[in-house]
Amino acid sequence: MLRYLPFLLVLALWIYAFIDCLNTPEEEVRGLPKVVWVIIILLFGEVLVGPVAWLVAGKRRHAPAGGSTPSEWHRDRRARFVAPDDNPEFLDSLKDSGDKKDEALLKDWEADLRRREEELKRREDGQEGRGE
Question: How far apart are CA 61 and CA 43, in angstroms?
């Protein structure tokens, strides 16, 4: 099984580069026309030249929208863990969504309990009148 791993990795890179090239808009393709890149990827895919060339030189890469890389964003915004019972947003969401549903459910249960108690009383009254 392990001997097939290099072949599968080459095949996966080949397929990824091919689909990425097909899905890339024409204005984001660098160097050569998109059709030529597709041919290069298909012809030189087995030796990894085509897919690697596409990934390195064929597609224009965009800068992040905020102007910073993801690592810079994470350094600037250190995540602080807040337990759910200390998070006011989480607690407010519980109050908003649960109160009305819980009240309605409780009313339905109470009505069902009353109905069952009445049925049970009727059965007991019916058995007392017939049996005794």
Answer: 24
Spatial separation of the C-alpha atoms in residues 42 and 29, rounded to whole Å: 17
Say if pTM beats, i.e. exceeds, 0.90. Answer: no
∠109-113-117 over CA atoms, to 5°? 175
DSSP 68-127: S-HHHHHHHS------GGG-HHHHHHHHHHHHHHHHHHHHHHHHHHHHHHHHHHHHHHHH
Of 35, 43, 40, 67, nearest in space to 54 by CA: 40
CA gap 104, 110 in Å, rounded: 10
* Predicted local confidence at residue 88, as pLDDT: 83
